[in-house]
Amino acid sequence: MPATKPETRDAPAGASSEHSRPPVTRFASSESLSRAELIGAPVRWPRPSRLEAPLAPAAKKMSAGLLALGLRSVGELLEHLPSDSREARTVAALRAGEQATVSVEVRTISARPVRRRGMRPLVEASVFDATGRMRATFFNQPWLLERYPPGTRLLLHGKADARGGFSVSHHALGADAATGVLAGPGESDAVAHYPAADGITSTQLLTLVRGARDALGDVPEALSAATRVTEGMPDRASALAAMHFPRLPGDLETGRRRLAFEELLLTQLAFLRRRAARRARTGAAVLADPGTLGERWLESGLPFALTGDQRRAAQEIAHDLRQTAPMQRLLMGEVGSGKTVLALYAMLQAVGHGHQSALMAPTETLAEQHFATIQGLLGSEVGGVLISTALLTGSTPAARRRDILGKLCSGELSLIVGTHALIEPDVRFQALAVAVIDEQHRFGVRQRAALGEREPVQTGGGSTLAPHTLHMTATPIPRTLALARYGDLDTSALRELPLGRQPIETRLVSGEQERARAYEELRTELVAGRQAYVVCPLIDDPDALAPGAAANPETAPSAPESGLRAASAELQRLRKGELAGYELALLHGGMRPREKQEAMAAFASGKADVLVATTVIEVGIDVPNATVMLIENAERFGISQLHQLRGRVGRGEHRSRCLLVGPPDAGGSGRLGALVRYSDGFRLAEIDLAMRKEGELIGTRQSGLGQFRIARLPEDAQVLERARARAEAIVADDPELCAPEHALLRVALERQLGADAAQPLPA
Ligand code: ADP
Ligand code: MG
After folding, report:
1. Rounded to two decimals, what is the model's pTM?
2. Which of 58, 253, 477, 636 fits a 20 to 30 Å CA distance from 688?
3. Pairing of β 626-631 and β 656-661
C-alpha cells in the first residue's frame, strides 16, 4: 500500500521554505526528511486503468469458469468477494478421511511414474507446519515439481489418510514465506472461501487473487478522508485485502462492513440526489390557501375525531402541499388505520384550489372499495360544494369512459378513482394537482411515475408543474427497510388504530388442559351468537397418507404424529369432538374457487359458526361478528403472518381474542411472546426483522431487498443508518458532489448505479 502518499502530497518539495508548516518527518519518528529524500520517496498513485487488464488464467477450463462468474478483468476478480473464510487446520490436527485445508511449507518434492497407462507421473512432497510433517500427493500434474520448489508456502485442500499421507484435491500458493507465519499448535489460519463455478474452484480463485494482490494498490478510494475518519473505516483496498487475505476470523466481516457501508452510502446518495433533483426540476401547484375545502372537511365533515397519528400525518401532508416542489410522501398504516381519510383530505385540498385529483389502486376491487369509502366519507357535498367524482377501471363501459375522459380533460370532473386505466395514454387531465397511489409496491416504477407525471398543470409562464404524490401502503415497514427501499420518499406512519376499535386480547395456550379451556371459551362465544376461526398450518394430514396411520384409531383424536394439524382433519375431529353440534365450514387453498366462495359465503352470512381454515383467510375476509381466532401450531407461523391473521377478528363492536396454541416455551422473548405483548404492527414488523436470520429474507427479497451485492439486511441495519446520516451530511454540503474530495464518490455512484443515479428519476 502506498502508505506515504498523503504526507508527500501535502508537503510538496518547496514546503520546507514555508515556515508555517511543520516539517515532514520519517515514518514514526521525529527525524525530518530532506528535500532530496522527499523527491525520491516512492510515491505510488493508484492507476485504476490497470484494473481493466484481462485475467490470464492458466487453463482453458478455468476461463470458462471465470466467465461463468462474470470475471474478465483483474478489477472484477478483486471484487469477487469470498463468501466466508475457512479455518485452515494444522497438520497435527488433521483427521483421517476428513476434507480439510492446511497451510504448509514444502521441504522436498519429487515425481515418480505411475504404473497405470494414461496417468502422468505422481508428484509427492514432504510438507510441514509448526505442528508436524506429512506426505502430500498431487495427481496428474508433473509440472508442480518446478512450480513448488522447497521453501514454497502452500495452501492445500484435500483428504488425510491414517498413514501420514494427504491426497491433494486443490492447491494454491500460500502467504509469502517472508511475511506469513505458519500456524502453530492450537492456532489456525483463516482462508478465504469463494463462490466457485464449473471449471474453477475456490482454491484456484484464491491463487488468482493472490497473484493479483499488487493490483489492490490501483483500487480507487471513493470515500473521502473525512468520511473514513468520521466513520472509523479502512480504505477500500485494505477492506478488500482483509477479505481476501484474512489473518483473523473477524477480518472478513470487518472488510465486508466497510464495503457494505460504501454500497449503502451510494444508494442513499442516489436517493437523496434524486429527491433533490426532482425538487429542483419540477414545481408543483402551491396548495396554501387557508380554510379551503380539505381543511373544512377535516374539521367539520367527519363523523369522528382523527387519531393523533392521523392529525400528525395531515399536518405533514398539508406542509408538503404548501411547497412549490411536489410532495413525495409514503403513508404507511395497516388496514383500517384510516389512510383513506388522509388521501381524501389531500385530494380535497387540490379540488378546493380549483385543481383535480386522482387515486390509483392496483386492482378493480380495491378501486371500487376506495370509491365507495370516499363517497361515504364525502356525503353528497362538502361544505356546500358539490364534488364531481367518478370511477374509471378496465371494465368501465366505452361510452361511460368517453364521457369521463371528456370531463377530465375539460376539468368538469375534479376527483377520480381508478386502476391502471387512469394512466392510459389517452387519459388527459385539465389540472392534476394531487395523485394518490395505493399499495404502491404493486405498481412498477414506470407506472407510478406515469401518474406522477401525468398532464401537469399548465402555468402561464409555460413551465410545467407535477402533481403532489401520496403513496400508500398497508404493510408496516420498519424504518430500516423503508430507508433501504424508499429512501427518496418522506414517510408518515399511522400506528394507532382509530378509537373505538377494540384491542384484541392475545394469549398463548399450551398443553391439553389449557387447550380444553380455550375451546370452552370459544364455545361460550358461539353460544352468545358470535363466530370463530380455527387456523391450521396444513391442508391435509400428512400422517393420513402414511400406511398404518388410519389403522390406529387410538391416536386419531389427539394431535397427529408430525405434531402439525391439518384443516381438513381438524374439521372432522372438531365435528365429533369439541365443536359437536355446531355448523363448521372448511376453507383452504386446495379447494376449487366455487367451493371457497360457498364456504366464505356460509361464514359471512352466519350460517356457519366456525371457519376451519389455512392461512388463506389472511386476505379479504371481513366478518365483524367473528370474535375468536384459535391458531394451531402457532409456532410455525411468522410474526407478520400471525399479526395479519389476528386482524381478521376485532372488526366489530365485540371484544375479540386470539388464542395461539403452541409449545409452552414459545412465549417469553420468542415470536409468540411478541404477539402477546404488542398489537402495533410496526413494532411487530421491527421485531420480526430483528429475529430473522440471514437467508430467511425470502419475502423481502421479492420486494427488492436482495438488491445489494455486499450489504445484508437486516444485519446491516446500523451500517445503513450511518450511511444515511453520512449521505445527508454530504448532500447538505455538496449536493452536486462537485467538491474535489467527492469526485471519486461521484464516479463510484455512476459506476455502481449507472449514469441514471445522477439523473432525477420520477416517483
Ligand atoms: P385504511 O384505508 O387505512 O384501511 P380507512 O381509511 O378505509 O382505512 O378507514 C377504515 C374505517 O375506519 C373507515 O370506515 C373510516 O371511516 C374509519 N375511520 C378512519 N379514521 C377514523 C377515526 N379516527 N375514528 C374512527 N373511525 C375512523
Ligand atoms: Mg382503505
Report:
1. 0.67
2. 253
3. parallel
Q: Dump pLDDT digits (tens) for 394-410.
A: 999 999 999 999 999 99
Alpha carbon 611 to chain centroid distance?
A: 35
User: Rounded to 5 degrees, what angle do the CA atoms 445, 448, 450 make?
Assistant: 105
Helix spans in 528-583 (H): 542-545, 567-576
> Backbone phi, then psi, for 16, in 5-degree steps?
-65, -25
- Residue 86 Cα, ligand 1 centroid: separation in angstroms? 55
CB of residue 217 inside a 6 A radius of ligand 1 = no
Question: What separation in angstroms does the CA of 313 have from each of 470, 491, 632?
Answer: 11, 9, 38
Between CA 305 and CA 288 the distance in angstroms is 23
CA triple 649-652-657, angle to 5 deg: 35
Residue 700 Ramachandran class (φ > 0 left, ψ -120 to 50 alpha, else beta):
alpha
- Residue 253: how many other CB atoms lie within 10 Å: 17
Q: How many residues does the chain have?
A: 763
Residue of 302, 304, 371 to test ligand 1 pocket, by largest number of atoms within 8 Å of CB:
304
Q: Is the pLDDT of residue 182 over 60?
A: no
- From 341, 347, 377, 475, the mutation candidate for ligand 1 (largest count of ligand atoms within 8 A of CB) is 341
What single-letter amino acid sits at 137? T
Q: What's the CA-to-centroid distance between 536 and ligand 2, angstroms?
A: 28
Residue of minimum CA distance from atom 22 in ligand 1 = 498
Considering only CA atoms, which of 348, 418, 411 is closest in space to residue 385?
Answer: 348
Regarding the beta carbon of 369 and ligand 1, being less than 6 Å apart is answered no
**Ligand 2 ion: residues within 5 Å (CB):** 340
